[in-house]
Amino acid sequence: MRKKVLLSDVVTAVKGRVLNNGDADYVRWVVSSGLMSDVLTTEEEEILLLSSLTTTQVVRTADMVGAHAILLACGKPISSDTVSLASELGITLISCEIPVFEAGHLLAPLFFGD
Question: Per residue in 95-111, pLDDT tens?
Fold first, then answer.
């Protein structure tokens, strides 16, 4: 089983901002894609979904795969509907200003270090 990575460490690594605190305080893996249909194929559990898409579809997809959190990159505006749905479903929602690729690079040491 993969190690737990605290969401507070994720926020620190990407200089992010928590928009909604969900039910879990950790993730075990990152899945990143611009196509939510690709995310649906993952067999990983307790994931952080990393995307630049900011629609409610991202939150619904995260819920379907059992994601603990979503990291929305690229500093795009996030609608109140997206935040509200994450709250309703108990999913942590984090935003950051950096691009998806850079966010993945900054997160890698949390999952592969030690």
Answer: 999 999 999 999 999 99
Tokens 């984090």 correspond to 94
The pLDDT tens digits of the residues spanning 66-91 come to 999 999 999 999 999 999 999 999 99
| Chain position carrying tokens 């200003």 | 97
Strands 5-6 and 17-20: unpaired
Distance from the Cα of residue 50 to its chain's centroid: 5
User: In terms of Cα–Cα distance, which of 22, 90, 31, 78 is closest to 53?
Assistant: 78
Q: What six digits make up the tokens of 56?
A: 């409610």
Q: What's the mean pLDDT when you consider all of the chain? A: 96
The residue type at 104: G
Q: Which residues of 19-36 are buried (b: 16+ CB within 10 A; e: fewer)?
A: bbbbebebbbbbbbbeeb
Measured CA to CA, the distance from residue 10 to residue 6 in angstroms comes to: 7
Structure tokens at 24: 């879990």
User: Which domains can be identified in the chain, with CATH numbers?
Assistant: 5-112 (3.40.1390.20)
